[in-house]
Specification:
The chain is of the alpha/beta class. The strands form 3 sheets. Strands 1, 2, 9, 10, 11, 12, 18 and 19 form an 8-stranded mixed sheet that branches. It has an 8-stranded mixed sheet with strand order 7-6-5-14-15-16-13-17, sandwiched between helices. A 3-stranded antiparallel sheet has the order 3-8-4. The radius of gyration is 21 Å and the shape is globular. The chain binds flavin-adenine dinucleotide. The site of flavin-adenine dinucleotide has 39 residues, from helix 1, strand 13, strand 17 and helix 8.
């Protein structure tokens, strides 16, 4: 049997591409190697843009709604630690319970001061900062929708790809007009195309029960910039139900894996959190873009290098690029301006923060820089 398009990977980019193809009447086959897609290492943080993409754009989907995709927690506050200082970001429209959270946070600054010895700067914005989501739940809901809309799904790993055929690890060979590679940062298809690796950031993440963090109240998500530890990367602590996702990422390159391990352990001991408690995960983020159209083969999401090399955020970029790639295939005259636009924007920001002098100075002096009128809003927008 022949398909209009074969998509490899049921992550955000593959799912988004599949929904767009199906809405245009294409005959779609999706390959997924994992029995539970969405279980990969990820903080699960959805920015407001990603949240709106999922729940506004797809609001008419039967299987997919805020109810079917819970639990999903909205965070309207973010604590940002930079160099030796703490910067707090909170929404203007705080509800009483958010207020409690804010008070808890400011109460905690005392404890943080013991670690970093500096005071906290607070920055307020009006929009929620992010939503913490369970990817297994919402990806599964979209997968169900795609099946209902008529896509075929094969739960097998793709072993080989050409522009006309896909061959699975069990030797199944399928003919197709187009291939969409949505197979993540270490994409097999990207290797087949002999492109440089998409991996721009390497990460470690530890998932621990909230009770492990006895000394602190980590109810508010926080991100930690510290040039001496993470270079142009950063650490994050995202609270989710009864667990904390504590992770960090550093720019990929020579020596990155050992720097990552030692920085992570150093940071945990700064935070007085136990090392090697809970579940340890490693992962890569695809943030190096070298094009997305290669004849009949198209790359999307991390496989195309769409994630931000600065924030590591990739879910929104995966959703958007999956949709854009599907549009390009369905309408031959359509050329996405969004895909190269996002890539250029990330590259510019990254070249600034990865500069050894500029980056160090920006990250370590963020507190003073953010006091300049207008700069704080601009910088915080770059975050989200
Ligand atoms: C530790 C960590 C934390 C992160 N935290 C965040 C965050 O909080 N917020 C955010 O926005 N982004 C985050 N990211 C980035 C985000 O996870 C990715 O950018 C996003 O998942 C990319 O989506 P994707 O669909 O392109 O690829 P993926 O989500 O990686 O999906 C690829 C899919 O393809 C499948 N696949 C791969 N190879 C094959 C094959 N040969 N055959 C069949 N199937 C295959 C995989 O099983 C997988 O399901 C994080 C990344 C890491 C590593």
């Amino acid at each position: 049997m022949k398909f209009d398009v074969c998509i490899i990977g049921a992550g955000p980019s593959g799912l988004s591409a599949a929904l767009e193809f199906l809405s245009q009447g294409a005959k779609v086959l999706l390959f997924e190697k994992s029995s539970r897609p969405g279980r990969k290492a990820c903080g699960g943080g959805l920015t407001q843009d990603a949240f709106e993409f999922l729940f506004t754009r797809w609001h008419n989907k039967k299987k997919f709604s805020l109810k079917t995709c819970g639990p999903l927690e909205t965070c309207r506050q973010l604590a940002v630690y930079s160099g030796n200082s703490a910067i707090y970001r909170g929404a203007n429209n705080l509800t009483p319970s958010d207020g409690d959270g804010m008070n808890r946070f400011f109460g905690r600054v005392h404890t943080q001061r013991e670690i970093f010895g500096k005071e906290c700067l607070s920055v307020h914005t009006s929009a929620p900062f992010m939503h913490v989501s369970n990817r297994v739940v919402w990806q599964n809901a979209v997968l169900m929708q795609i099946k209902e809309d008529g896509a075929e799904i094969i739960d097998e790993r793709v072993a080989r790809v050409s522009d006309k055929f896909i061959v699975t690890e069990n030797g199944r060979s399928i003919e197709t007009d187009f291939v969409v590679a949505a197979d993540g940062a270490r994409s097999l298809v990207r290797r087949t195309l002999k492109l440089p690796s998409a991996v721009g950031i390497v990460c470690r993440q530890q998932i621990v029960e909230s009770s492990v963090a006895n000394d602190f109240d980590f109810a508010i998500p926080s991100v930690w910039f510290h040039y001496d530890m993470f270079g142009a990367g950063y650490g994050w602590i995202f609270p989710f139900q009864d667990e904390l996702r504590i992770g960090c990422g550093v720019p990929a390159g020579k020596g990155a894996p050992s720097l990552l391990k030692s920085s992570f352990e150093r940071w945990l001991s700064h935070l007085r959190l136990p090392i090697k408690a809970g579940q340890m995960q490693t992962g890569s983020i695809g943030s190096r873009y070298f094009g997305h159209r290669f004849g009949r083969v198209f790359l999307a999401g991390d496989a195309a290098g769409m994630a931000s090399s600065v924030t590591g955020e990739g879910i929104f970029q995966a959703l958007v690029s999956g949709r854009e790639v599907a549009k390009e295939i369905c309408s031959p005259s359509y050329r996405s301006e969004i895909i190269p636009g996002l890539a250029i924007q990330h590259e510019r920001t990254f070249s600034t923060v990865s500069h050894p002098i500029i980056g160090r100075s920006l990250y370590n002096n963020a507190r003073s820089i953010l006091k300049i009128p207008g700069v704080s809003q601009l910088a915080m927008r770059k975050f989200s």
